[in-house]
Amino acid sequence: MNRLFSARKAVAFAGVSGAIVLALLATTVVVMGAKSPAATRWNHSSTEGVRTAARAEAAIPQNLIWQEIQVVEKYGNKVGVVDNQPGGDSVGDYVVFRDKLFDPNNLSKQVGTIDVQCLRGFSDMCRGVVRLNNKGQITFDGMTELDVDPDRYNIVGGGGSFADVGGVMRIDFVADDRALLTLTLTH
């Protein structure tokens, strides 16, 4: 009798476990390995059909700008995508990625990395960290309209040489395999 009861428990456990695994597979797809375009990262589709921001930029007064840094983000292969139901690009999808940053005047000179997490909503909410070699890190956070370029995110802090910074990070999509990031820092 105990063997029969144990066998039933094992079958029930296997059935429930299998259902959980199938449910997870139905809601999650992780993509690793292949280089991916800006669409995967910043939900940028292409230059065709994308509106240029018509809103007035909130300019930082020149006397408050401490430093402006430009780097080129080259799209690499470190990207993960959680594709929630319904399948395809939809509200609730999540993207995590890390790319290398390069000197815009010398695209073979790596100057840092960028780590980002984006949640797809009716606008994209992204936060992340720009790490610049031997200088420190800059943290950004914010929401950007879908299909409107360039993207802008608030700089909300930093560490190392960038302790207590604020400002704006602007992302211009200059090619299919890279973006130009301009970090305007206040102190």
CATH architecture of the largest domain: Beta Barrel
Report the CATH C-level class of the largest domain.
Mainly Beta
> Which percent band covers the strand fraction?
over 45%
In quaternary terms, these chains amount to single chain
Q: Count the domains.
A: 2
Question: What is the average per-residue confidence, as pLDDT, rounded to a whole number?
Answer: 79
Using the alpha-carbon principal axes, give the shape: globular
Assign the structural class, choosing from mainly alpha, mainly beta, alpha/beta, alpha+beta, or little secondary structure: alpha+beta
Count of helices?
2
Secondary structure: number of strands: 10
The largest β sheet comes out as:
8 strands, antiparallel, barrel
Stretches with pLDDT under 50, minimum 5 residues? 10-36
CATH T-level fold name of the largest domain: AOC barrel-like
Order of helices and strands: HHEEEEEEEEEE
How far apart the termini lie comes to 75 Å
The CATH homologous superfamily of the largest domain corresponds to: Allene oxide cyclase-like
Sheet with most strands: strand arrangement: 2-3-4-5-6-8-9-10
What helical percentage do the residues reach? 10-25%
